[in-house]
Specification:
Layout (H helix, E strand, L loop, with lengths): L1 H13 L4 H14 L6 H11 L7 H13 L2 H14 L5 H14 L5 H18 L4 H11 L10 H10 L3 H7 L1 H21 L11 H26 L5 H19 L5 H34 L2 H12 L3 H18 L2 H19 L3 H15 L7 H10 L3 H6 L2 H16 L7
Helix pairs in contact: 1-2, 2-14, 3-14, 4-7, 4-13, 4-14, 5-6, 5-12, 6-7, 6-8, 6-11, 7-8, 7-19, 8-19, 9-17, 9-18, 11-21, 12-13, 14-17, 15-17, 16-17, 16-18, 17-18, 18-21
Amino acid sequence: MTALILVVFLGAAVIAIPIAHALLVAAMAAAATSDKVPLDLLVQQMVAQVQSFPLIAIPFFMLTGTLMMGGKLGEALIGVLSTLIGRFHGGPGQVGVLSSTIFGGVSGSAVADASAIGSLLIPWQKRLGYPPAFSAATLAAAATIDILIPPSIPMILFALVSNTSIAALFVAGILPGLLMCGGFMAVCWWVGRRRNFPRETRKLDWPVFRKQLTYASPALMLPVLIVVFLRFGIATPTEVAVLSTLFAGLVSALVYRDLGLKRLHAAIVEAGLATGVVLLVIMASAAIGWLLTFDRMPDGVVAWAREHLSSGWTVVLMMNVLMLVCGMFIDLPAAVLLLTPVFVPLANAIGMDLTQLGIMMTVNLAIGLYTPPVGTTLFITSAVAKVKVGETVRELGPFYAVAFLILLLVSYVPATILK
């Protein structure tokens, strides 16, 4: 059954069927050829997976991100960052990295980050004379910081499948996210200095900066409030998601006064459509995961690893290689939902903490978002910058180096996982 699922899924993916539908086709094919799996039971497993209270956080975090970055607040955030660091070597690129890091404390979606930040920053960088391909590369890589800084939709999905604490995952992602931010900013500085990229020439005007900082303070406050509420147990992740949406709505309506009925309707529709896509992937992945478990595939993987891999570090290496390959071809939510049931028994067998596994998986699969041939943020930022994907990939080398270094740290240095 496992072999049939793999063959049908890969075949459907090769002919460009969307991932969620390819998973459904593979599940139906496996169920139809087996007399031990009733179709009604398969449907029950699909529906049961989305009857989970923590999943309510997903649409609210997406709506928060749309409300925060779709109006004046997003422009204010970018304005204060460009005033602060835009005059340094690689400053415009560093503005993109910092913007993604702060936006990561709002939405939890790398794709939303690439779309929102890219549409605001890339035209500004091009007006400064910045190379469009490097702008696209910077934002394609930086957008993935969004899913490390809490909140994070992939972490919610991992917690759903592995029964790990969402709050623990959110807190654990802070340090790797900040390390990734620092590393990417260093790349922007180094490349900007070496290639003499253009930058802002205005000196820092402190009165203007203080005014911009005050204006943008709601965008800077929300990520801090989310971490504080989660770290000290003031609210559950789902409650935090609802509160963050309320905060974003009130700030947009009362402070910036740019939230009308038309924009609110557009934000709700956008968040609803994005949530529908994620839920369809969850349902399809639940069907595949249940069939693989029924076929005892995770047990077989654990038995093979115990027989052929001599130590824990080689098991971790094998998991990373498999995730890197899967991340290149499968959308991140689907990859999390498919790989988690397989890797949790492996992690338990070598004594690896599941929170560390969740962070390792998030960092690893995030690399796939800007790696061909299916890199989502890679294609988004390349389209916004109007450059060929190949040109963007050629600029991504230093960013890959930083990402792999962070991946090694979270894989083999448990101290990088905050608790």
